[in-house]
Amino acid sequence: MSTFKDLVSKAVELKGSQAKLAEEMGCSQQQVSYLLKYATSISAEMALAIDKATKGAVPRYALRPDIYGQPAKRSRARASA
Q1: Which residues of 6-28 are buried (b: 16+ CB within 10 A; e: fewer)?
Q2: What is the pLDDT of residues 53-78, one digit of tens each?
Q3: Which domain holds residue 9?
Q4: pTM (2 d.p.)
Q5: Residue 54: which CATH number?
Q6: Is residue 81 a part of any domain in this protein?
Q7: GO terms for molecular function, please (predicted)?
């Protein structure tokens, strides 16, 4: 199981730098650095921003499962013939 810091690191890798991730999240590079070095949790707002910035590659439910949980699995209805 990944910690939120592992997931934030993955987001940084995907974007290429803390600054690029921060720009897409709408926050400062210092806030991203703080998440990686000192934070003990991540806010729901930051989780949403990372989800959006990574186009779901780092999903909000992985960052904050206590709030967002796992997405519901969709069942495929079969056509009756």
Answers
A1: ebbbbbbeebeebebbbebbebe
A2: 999 999 999 999 999 988 777 766 65
A3: 4-66
A4: 0.83
A5: 1.10.260.40
A6: no
A7: DNA binding
